[in-house]
Amino acid sequence: MKPANLTEMERLAEARFLNEFEKLRPIIEAEARIRRQMVQLDEQTAEIRTSSPHMFDYRAFGADVAWHAWESRTRRVLNLELARLRAQKLVAMENLRLAHGRRQAAAKLLSQFRNQSARQRERVQLEQLCLSECLGPAR
């Protein structure tokens, strides 16, 4: 394979890796956002539980039941969204892993080619030196 082809292959593998990495970023950000929302919901639930004995008016109107129903629905929606994002993240991580492997393979091929070329040049130079020494000065 020509060195230009190997260099191009390495460049393309690097671009593919970066592209896959950029696809993963919004998924990770969305997952973090949902986790923050779940923490906030947990904090609200804990606050309601601690102040619950002092909220007789809310219980009288049934607001506590409505709030718990809302909290349950919200938690279910957040968990479903988190599960969907985790499934997307698994696919994106697998694609990133493959792109990383291709990037490493292309870099290794290019490195091996460069090392082989350097050894070949050294061998040719050594042969030329041996020939010039063996033949002696030109008469």
Give structural attributes.
139 residues; mainly alpha; Helix Hairpins; 3 helices; rod-shaped; Flagellar FliJ protein
Structure write-up:
It comes from Ruegeria marisrubri. With 139 residues, this protein is mainly α. It has a single domain, classed as Helix Hairpins (Orthogonal Bundle). Helix content is 92%, strand content 0%.
CATH architectural grouping: Orthogonal Bundle
Which strand-content bin applies to the residues?
under 5%
Instruction: Report the order of strands and helices.
Output: HHH
Q: What's the mean pLDDT score?
A: 88
How many strands, which pairing sense, and closed or not: the largest β-sheet? none
How many distinct beta strands? Answer: 0
Gyration radius from CA atoms, angstroms? 32 Å
Shape type: rod-shaped
Classification by helices and strands? mainly alpha
CATH topology value: Helix Hairpins
Whole-number tally of structural domains: 1
CATH class: Mainly Alpha
* Cα separation of the termini: 43 Å
Which runs of at least 5 residues are low in confidence (pLDDT < 50)? none
Number of helices: 3
Question: Percent range for helical residues?
Answer: over 70%
Protein name: Flagellar FliJ protein
